[in-house]
Amino acid sequence: MPIVIRLAKYCWAAPWSLLGAVLGCVAILLGADWRRAQGTFEIGGGLLGALIRRLPPSLSFSAITFGHVILGVDLPTLAHLRAHEQVHVRQYEHWGPAYVPAYILSSLLQLMRGRHPYLDNHFEREAYAVSHPRAPQT
Question: Of 13, 37, 87, 130, which sees the most CB atoms within 10 A?
Fold first, then answer.
């Protein structure tokens, strides 16, 4: 991919990447580890991982992506979830600043239809289809 296009994608996702970088820096200060992987920063473990693990089941997650920054419970889990989270990175590159509002809107629409706001979310279905192509679609 030409460098100009790659740079444009990083810039388009930059507002959310900046939020992820701030959260990631705080996580690192609280003991998280980090690494670069496939054009992103993956940050996990430390107090961040411990806090995520303590969330109630309805709010729990293993990883969350903000632009080109992926935060998670620990680095092995992030490695395991890399294909799924990389789909979200591509979605941020496509949608830019509108990604999070579109994601929330998709969840709300599913909730209003009596469906699951996470599993039936358009963006999650796309990520699961790529990262777990044999997983049943609900």
Answer: 13
